[in-house]
Amino acid sequence: MPPPGAIAVPRPLRPAAFKCGPAAGGAGDDTMGRALGTLGCLLLLLPLLPAVPGSPHRLRRQPRPGGRLSGSQAADTACKNRPLDLVFIIDSSRSVRPEEFEKVKIFLSEMIDTLDIGETTTRVAVMNYASTVKVEFPLRTYFDKASMKEAISHIEPLSAGTMTGLAIQTAMEEVFTEEMGTRPASFNIPKVVIVVTDGRPQDQVQDVAASAQTAGIEIYAVGVDRADMQSLRTMASEPLDEHVFYVETYGVIEKLTSKFRETFCAANVCALGTHDCEHVCVSNGESYLCDCYEGYALNSDKRTCSAVDMCEPGRHDCDQICMSNNGSYVCECYEGYTLNPDKKTCSAMDMCAPGRHDCEQVCLSNDGSYSCDCYEGYTLNPDKTTCSAVDMCAPGRHDCEQVCLRDDLFYTCDCYQGYTLNPDKKTCSRAITSSLITTEESCKCEAIAALQDSVTSHLEALSTKYILFLT
């Protein structure tokens, strides 16, 4: 018996159990023979009648003429399913016999008959896996049932190991991409995987399945015959009783089509995609209402949506500046501030850090801003960033009493002739002539004086003679 939570389809009766038809009644009267044959058929079909109410998780087995509905018959009974991006992942390892693999392909074809296939409705991809993974066709390839079923009929088994985790990983990374036909997230189209396997995965499937589900992929696990139920439950999405299926043989796997048809059937106008809501459709019995994504408001036409100003007072929690962004917002800071890791509050930057300012000499930080200054001996130019050397000997800039001598950015004081600089290096005093005379200088002075006296005396004598001569 399959474990609890699995949906079980009983193993079909062997043909040898009963014989259906007139031959079952023996060689007697034809009417009696037909009656007995019919009774035998009814006895044969008793195990196939619907399960008794109250026995959950068992698919109802309805007798079908010829054992299987034709494609057109299945299409006639199909409901309009909600749009999906649906990927079948089928196990073709060596444990799956060729005739069993053919039944899997029949199952896929019958599933396609129940779906509303199309570019804007349900898109289907098929992956085949064993030790390796092969994408038989992606979501972008076929948009009609006939072409899709034809491609499925040509799929060949790979006949090797059972790398189920690798197959799910490949689906997530290579098939569920917009390049391969997956519709953008904004379309809100469910991404669904149906895994069909009869064995135990030979790789780690739990983490891969968890990653796929985190990425928004819904996983259904179908186990056949020897399938490991724990592995099925590990890879399937929650709730498990709606995502784990089990059948005892490939011979009855097609019975699952009715279950999936019910699962994927659109039960309301919103799921059918016939509404005209721009953003969100909310089912309301047989009708619907439109709603909008967060950050948008429903317009007066009750169908379309417009972005609300998320930067209105009270709508945001930005510390300084709120920037509206298509129905949402981002926070920014004033010049001189930087956004903190919480993306809401701001902190003042050191505007005088290297590379942040354009001051030529001195940068003075000032609460998220800055101003420029100059070294001593320089003055700030009108551009408020560069500096020029000042004339330190200009009136009022020095404290020299008499003479200011400029020396690059500095100055020294000096005095006029006849004055000497005082020890304070600023003021001046009149110079005093020294009374000390050397011996040599004294001799020279005496000789000069004697000569002067001799000349004076000689001049006086001549003057006297000249006067006498005149008298």
Structure, described:
The chain is α/β, with parallel strands linked by helices. Helix content is 27%, strand content 22%. It contains 11 helices and 23 strands. The chain has helices at residues 30-45, 71-77, 98-114, 145-153, 164-175, 206-214, 229-235, 240-243, 256-264, 269-272, 439-470; strands at 7-9, 85-91, 123-129, 133-137, 191-197, 217-224, 244-247, 280-284, 287-291, 296-298, 305-307, 321-325, 328-332, 337-339, 346-348, 362-366, 369-373, 378-380, 387-389, 403-407, 410-414, 419-421, 428-430. The strands form 9 sheets. A 7-stranded mixed beta sheet has the order 1-7-6-5-2-3-4, with helices on both faces. Strands 8-9 form a two-stranded antiparallel sheet. A two-stranded antiparallel ribbon has the order 10-11. Strand 20 (403-407) and strand 21 (410-414) form a beta hairpin. The relative contact order is 0.07. Mean pLDDT is 78; it is low at 8-78.
Q: What is the end-to-end distance?
A: 183 Å
Main pleated sheet: 7 strands, mixed
Spatial arrangement of strands, main beta sheet: 1-7-6-5-2-3-4
The tally of strands reads 23
Percent helix range: 25-40%
Structural class category:
alpha/beta
Mean pLDDT, to the nearest integer, reads 78
Beta-strand percent range: 15-25%
Rg calculated over all Cα atoms: 53 Å
- Could you say which overall geometry the principal axes of the C-alpha atoms support? rod-shaped
Low-confidence stretches: 8-78
- How many helices? The count is 11
Give the helices and strands, then pairings.
Layout: E1 7-9, H1 30-45, H2 71-77, E2 85-91, H3 98-114, E3 123-129, E4 133-137, H4 145-153, H5 164-175, E5 191-197, H6 206-214, E6 217-224, H7 229-235, H8 240-243, E7 244-247, H9 256-264, H10 269-272, E8 280-284, E9 287-291, E10 296-298, E11 305-307, E12 321-325, E13 328-332, E14 337-339, E15 346-348, E16 362-366, E17 369-373, E18 378-380, E19 387-389, E20 403-407, E21 410-414, E22 419-421, E23 428-430, H11 439-470
Helix pairs in contact: 2-3, 3-4, 3-9, 5-6
